[in-house]
Amino acid sequence: MTTNADDADIQDTVADAAPVSVDYAEILKRIPHRYPFLLIDRGENWVKNKSMTGIKNVTFNEPFFNGHFPENPVMPGVLLIEAMGQTGAVLMSKSLDADVEGKTIFFMSVDGVKFRSPVRPGDVVRMPVEVVRHRGDIFKFRGEAYVNDKIVCEAEFAAMVVESPK
User: DSSP secondary-structure letter at 102?
Assistant: First the structure.
C-alpha cells in the first residue's frame, strides 16, 4: 500500500512531465528580442529539456514584407530559422530556469536547413522544436516549421548561454 507521501511524489513527477503553455509575457522575460525581431507569439507543449512548439502569426504588416517581394510577399527563410531558434532559446531558458539577467542565448550552428514552401501573410507557423542533445549550457535542437499540416522548413541547430558584456 502506498502512503500519501508516495502519492505526492508520483503527482510531482507527473506534473513535471505535463506539457505547459508559454505566454507572450514569459517569452519577453526569457529572451531579449523585441519588435520587429521577436518572431514567436507564444509557446505550446513545453516539456522540460525535451520540446516546445513555437507559434508565429504572420501578418501582412510585418516589416520585412515591404522589401521581401512587395508584390508577392514571402517571409524570408532566414527568419523562419530565427523563429525556430527563438523557440529553442525559450525552451532552453525555461528548462535551465536560467537567470536571464546578464545572459543571452546565442546560435552556435545551423545545419541541414531545407525550405519546402513559402510562408505568406495570414499563415500561422507552428514550430515543434525538440532537444537532440543537452550538456550544461549547450543544447542541440531539431526544428520544423509547418503551415497547416504542410512542412515549410526544417533544420538542426545548436545554442549556448553566453554572459552579456558589462
Answer: T
pLDDT in tens, 5-47: 444 444 444 455 678 999 999 999 999 999 999 999 999 999 9
44-to-27, 41, 129, 162 alpha-carbon distances in Å: 12, 10, 11, 26
Cell of 164: 552579456
Q: Which of 158, 164, 160, 162 is nearest to 81 (CA)?
A: 158
Task: Return the closest-CA partner of residue 110 out of 147, 146, 77.
Answer: 77
Query: For residue 32, how far is the Cα from the chain centroid?
Result: 13
Question: How far is CA 64 from each of CA 55, 96, 149, rounded to the nearest angstrom?
Answer: 18, 32, 24
**What is the tens place of the pLDDT at every residue in 58-71?**
999 999 999 999 99
- Give dist(CA 123, CA 119) in Å, integer: 7
| End-to-end CA gap in the chain | 57
Secondary structure E strands in the chain: 20-22, 42-47, 51-57, 103-115, 124-135, 138-147, 150-163
Task: Give the per-residue SS3 of 50-91.
Answer: CEEEEEEECCCCCHHHHCCCCCCCCCCHHHHHHHHHHHHHHH
Give the catalytic positions in this structure. 68
